[in-house]
Design goal:
This protein is of the alpha/beta class. It is built from 13 helices and ten strands. Helix 7 links the parallel strand 6 and strand 7. The radius of gyration is 20 Å and the shape is globular. The structure holds iron/sulfur cluster (SF4) (2 copies).
Amino acid sequence: MALAVMFKTVSESCNLACDYCYYSRVKGNPGRAQEAIDPHLLERFMADYMSSYARGSASLAWQGGEPLLAGREFFERVVALEAQYAPNHTVISNGIQTNGVLINNAWAEFFRTYHFLVGVSLDGPETIHDARRVDRHGQGSFRRVMRGIDHLQRNNVDFNILTVVHPGNVDRVDALFEFYQSEGLRWVQFIPAMNFLAQNPEHPGRYEITPEDYGRFLCQTFDQWYNDGQPKMSIRFFDNVLSRYVGLEPEQCTLAEMCPPTLVIEQNGDVYPCDFYLGPQWRMGNIRDDRLATLLRSPVYRRFRQLKASLATACQSCQWRSGCQGGCPRNRGDDAGSVGGVDYFCQAYQQFFTYADNRLHRLG
Ligand code: SF4
Ligand code: SF4
């Protein structure tokens, strides 16, 4: 599998202050605008990556904070460097995850021209979204996000919606789907809200919803998605589960057999093996000092790559193992007699597979 790279384009800088904000340092307040990745560092990376790892394809993801704060000039430099250093006939894929507030017509034209896949964070209709996704003055961002989405739609940009599942929407499945349908939003992914302010990469992730909540949510959303055997929209989790039923390897890391080869690069050049493992003990090095090949040989990376395969005893004999693959190592607690415990959402996965298995077989 090709090496994918995710950049923390502007580190924690953000123009919103969502209360479940990713970085614990931010504590719900946007910091001073931070410089984007240094241009020389970016060029050094691009030359190394394209010459050694772009074998027919190159996959780069741009995240933040809010990556659009880096400005269009930064991304114009990105696409110019990609074109300069990519071997002939390389298929380059750029994904960007944004809160959508800064998207205007010029951004939308840029995304369309360079075929960026845009992920927009949107938690549902206005009252649900605005309860959590606010600016530093506590004002909801819904209308600004929808204006950004309108620009994407009018410019035919490929985009999907990322909805964080939290206590405010986990039991509002009907309202979510009515909203997606009325706004023409057909590509959606869900992620359970992590309590990012209580994170330590050495301990299992803490979540705002319980496994029971998530199991119920997955079953209800599956009913909506399944639509009497005629799915009309893409829900990333179900698309991935279905891949397994038709004999393909899912692209979603939590459902794949192994954590995919990915590097997460911070704005200052520090490198980590996964977005969920950003602590100092998981720092592999820095692209300022190290070639990518050296980073990938680091003991930290080797240790990380072994985590997912260390399945709990319960997973090894579980009837849903091929669908779930033990979930994410970051969500596993300890259990005596095994290397790691089961995923925090194990019960949700069991509930979902028990509920949906027959229909998934029929679709497959
Ligand atoms: S640790 Fe979890 S989030 Fe990270 S790549 Fe592996 S499965 Fe995915
Ligand atoms: S459903 Fe639970 S026990 Fe089964 S493989 Fe997944 S995490 Fe392990």
